Amino acid sequence: MPHRGTSSLSKFDLTGKAALVTGGARGIGLQIALTLQEAGAEIILTDADGVSLADVADRFPVKPQVYQLDVTASQAIRDLAGKIGSCPDILVNNAGVSRAAPTSQTTDEDWRFVLSVNLDGVFYCSRTFGSLMAERGSGSIVNISSMCSEIVTRQEPSVVTAYNASKAGVNMVTKTLACEWARSGVRVNAVAPGFVASDMTHKLPQEQIKSWSEQTPMGRFAQPHEIASAVHFLASDASSYMTGAVLSVDGGFTCW
Ligand SMILES: NC(=O)c1ccc[n+]([C@@H]2O[C@H](COP(=O)([O-])OP(=O)(O)OC[C@H]3O[C@@H](n4cnc5c(N)ncnc54)[C@H](O)[C@@H]3O)[C@@H](O)[C@H]2O)c1
């Protein structure tokens, strides 16, 4: 019999670990938090939208700790670390936004908004919690990137330069921090989803959803739980020799 801790399935067990998820009030972030709790983790659920956070806490079999947190506010992130008291074992940088417009109509504010949530937010949270993890000597950070970090989708009506640039930045933050903290026991990886059925995509015109589904080798959008499983893997000891990886979960989209 393999020892507990080295058997294949026990490596996925997150019992005794605390996981902080940003942007966890809905969509992919919410599903990630539910999945990590099912795997045994204690959940620290955060989101900028305090109202949705309060509503969603009841959906968890075990009530999570809930904190309103805007990931663009670096001091608020430091304050939260102080409030929590102990450093989480897992950080999932999931909060993200998109604004689509042709570049000529993209304002400075649009550009800053997307870059500040998607890229500054990942850096600020990683700086605060990852540094604490490195001091302690253990931790796993999972950043939610996108296939749009590496490829430009056929846009139909929308153009998302800021979004794509922000996610390319997330990949390099992931790889750079992975190297910086590799010998401190902290792993840093990213998941790069393809199209996922969530609030971010459900308002798209039906024609666009149909076209993007047809362009995906698997012929459909992902469900949030299919992204959450990959995050669970990267957060857990099952991926103990992985750091600096960007794991595609895109139904084959980037193969074509
Ligand atoms: N839906 C997709 O097709 C898709 C594809 C690839 C990657 N992603 C990425 O997955 C992540 C989650 O996306 P989703 O589809 O669940 O989006 P969503 O819009 O459904 O949820 C995003 C969550 O982030 C929160 N948020 C926004 N700004 C914030 C801020 N400044 N601070 C803290 N929280 C904030 C929102 O309140 C919301 O709860 C994002 O990083 C997104 O870029 C999504």
Write a structural description:
With 256 residues, the chain is an alpha/beta fold. It has a single domain (10-248), classed as Rossmann fold (3-Layer(aba) Sandwich). It is 41% helix and 14% strand. The protein contains eight helices and seven strands, in the order E-H-E-H-E-H-E-H-E-H-E-H-H-H-E. The chain has helices at 27-38, 50-56, 74-84, 108-136, 161-181, 199-202, 206-215, 224-235, and strands at 18-21, 42-47, 65-68, 90-93, 139-144, 186-193, 246-249. A seven-stranded parallel β-sheet has the order 3-2-1-4-5-6-7, sandwiched between helices. Strand 2, helix 2 and strand 3 form a beta-alpha-beta unit. The protein is globular. The model has no long low-confidence stretch (mean pLDDT 95). It binds nicotinamide-adenine-dinucleotide (NAD).
As an assembly, this protein is: single chain
Q: For the record, what is the CATH homologous superfamily label?
A: NAD(P)-binding Rossmann-like Domain
Rounded mean pLDDT score: 95
Count of the separate structural domains: 1
Percent helix range: 40-55%
Q: What is the strand tally?
A: 7
What is this entry, summarized?
It is built from eight helices and seven strands, in the order βαβαβαβαβαβαααβ. The protein has helices spanning 27-38, 50-56, 74-84, 108-136, 161-181, 199-202, 206-215, 224-235, and strands at 18-21, 42-47, 65-68, 90-93, 139-144, 186-193, 246-249. The structure holds nicotinamide-adenine-dinucleotide.
